[in-house]
Each structure stands twice: as structure tokens, then as C-alpha cells.
Amino acid sequence: MNVLNVRDLTVRYLLGKKQIYAVEKVSIFVKENEFLGVVGESGSGKSTFAHAIMHLLPKNARVLGGTIELLGREITQMNEDELRKLRWKEFSMVFQRSMSALSPVHKIEDQISEALLIHNPQMNLNQIRQRLESVLKMVNLPLRVLGCYPHQLSGGMMQRVMIALALVNLPKFIILDEATTALDVVTQGQIIEELKSLIKELSLTGMVISHDLGVVSELCDNIAVMYAGRLMECGRKEDIIHRPLHPYTKALVASLPDHVEKGGKLYSIPGTLPDLSKPIEGCVFASRCPLVSDECLETTPPFCDENGRGVACLKVRNEICNLSK
């Protein structure tokens, strides 16, 4: 059973007279009790894609096409009142900037309690306290945190508060948007291990948005690779890491520290992202691709998908057909 089905999602930002082609006809699915990792460098459209699912895009963003079916409901055309009944209860999100996401003038207890009471107004003070204590225990935070303001907590503690806030209503689907970014290596490792335990213990379903392929490989069952607003490749984690097909995916894997010999240099992808304010003919990765040909500059590669293993590359599309035999 698929908990999330996104088909041909297209999102653009309006900047004056310009349109930014942020997400172009991206289709993905997430099965129950599985996590999908969405990876790509900054500007690839990962967070826009996640915010579109949550209906939390800024005012200058427009969803121009596609459908989003979440937990058996078509939510693309839902109004804000309908979404408010579902958001944070049925599906929730952990934002990457915890200090910005938390109110600086309210204590942690008040902020988590508010999220709980909005969807459970019948709960009494004792029930609320029990749920808060339970969710703090889940994320390895002491009870004293409830009486603190955000500025009194470390970066790792604030990120744990954000995870607790996302889990307090026991949602069926959760999005982690760069949940370990800007944390030191030790804290990042601790939170990844805690998230792995939570995913297993609570049988969570969701998505992890990250520029770090290593983080995604730790937490996810499947991986989708985005570049310049397009889906480049998707498949099981093992296939993406050990048998990548798309040249961009291969470059991302080659840049992982674990794939560099001792004393060697980290691989970096030459060039920069294309200008997303202009329509792009051909493959969006062509200007940085070592396999580029005249056909790549003229023809937009279709996304070929066979049984969940997909790629958008004219050079390797036949490999998908071979894999399906």
C-alpha cells in the first residue's frame, strides 16, 4: 500500500516578471512503513517538493500541475481549513532551521502542548503531561526542557524538540527536511541513531530531504535523486549507492568520503546548476555531464521507470529495460 503518491508535480516561483522552474513533473511514491530519501545539491528543488506536499509553500509559489495523494486522500485542491485538520495530526514535518521554527517567546511546554490541543481539545492536563513526557523520552530529552525557552537549548536539543513536536500527535507520515544540518558531527550521529530507532519502534512512514547521501542511506529504504527541479533517478537504497545509473547519481556517490581512498581527494562535480529562470532544452544536467552528446542538448530525456527503478538519461535508459527482464 502506498501512503504517498505524487504524480507530475510542477511548482514555479514568481519573481517579478520571471518564473523559476523549481519542480518540473516529479512523480514519486512512498509505501507504508518505508522511508524515501530525496537527495541533491542546494537548488535542486528538494525542499520545495516537500513544502508542496505539506502545502507550506511561500505566497509567490504556484503549483501548476500534478496531484498529491496522501493517506488515501487527494489533498492537492484542499483549502487551508481542510488541511489544518490534517497537518501535524495525520502528517507532519521537521524543519531544518529549528531556531526559526520555534517561537522565541514561548516555553517548549507551551509550544508542544498547543500542537497537541489543537487536534485533541478533549485532553485534560494530566493526559497532556503524560503525552509530553512520553514524546520527550522518545527523543532523549530531560523533562526540564519543557520549562525552557528555545535560546536556552543547544542546537541538538532544539532539533530534538522539533522532532518531538512533529511526533506529538503520532502522525502516520512525517517529512524530515535536513533534520541534521548545521549540527556538529557527534550530535548529528546521535540524532541519526535516535531517528533510526524511532522509525523502527513507531513503524513510521515518511521522507528524508537531504543534500547528504550518507545521511539518507542511513535512514531510508529508497532514494530519489533530484537535480535542477527534475527527478534524475530513483530506486532501492542498495541500487542507488552501489549500482547508480545516472551520471549525476554516480558523481554524488563518488563524492562520499567512504568512497575515497585514504589520502585521496574528494570528488567534486564541475560546473554549476543551470539558470532555472529560463526554459531548458534537452537534459538539465548536460552542461556538467561527462557523457553529453548532441542528442542530450536537443532532447529532454523521459523518465523511464520499471518496478520502482527509474532513470532520466538518454545514455543509460536501455539499462532499465535490461534490469526489468
Q: Give the strand order of the largest sheet, numbering strands 1, 2, ... along the chain.
A: 6-7-8-3-9-10-12-11
Biggest sheet architecture: 8 strands, mixed
Rounded to the nearest angstrom, the radius of gyration is 21 Å
Overall form? globular
> What's the total count of β strands?
12
Give the percentage of residues in beta strands.
15-25%
CATH architecture of the domain at 2-78 and 204-323: 3-Layer(aba) Sandwich
User: Counting H and I runs of at least 4 residues, what is the number of helices?
Assistant: 12
CATH superfamily of the domain at 2-78 and 204-323: P-loop containing nucleotide triphosphate hydrolases
Helical content (DSSP H or I, runs of 4+): 25-40%
Kindly report how far apart the N and C termini lie.
24 Å
- What's the rounded overall pLDDT mean? 90
CATH fold-level topology of the domain at 2-78 and 204-323: Rossmann fold
N-to-C SSE series? EEEHEEHEHHHHEHEHEEHHHEEH
- At the first level of CATH, the class of the domain at 2-78 and 204-323 is Alpha Beta
Structural class: alpha/beta
Runs in which pLDDT lies below 50 for 5 or more consecutive residues are none
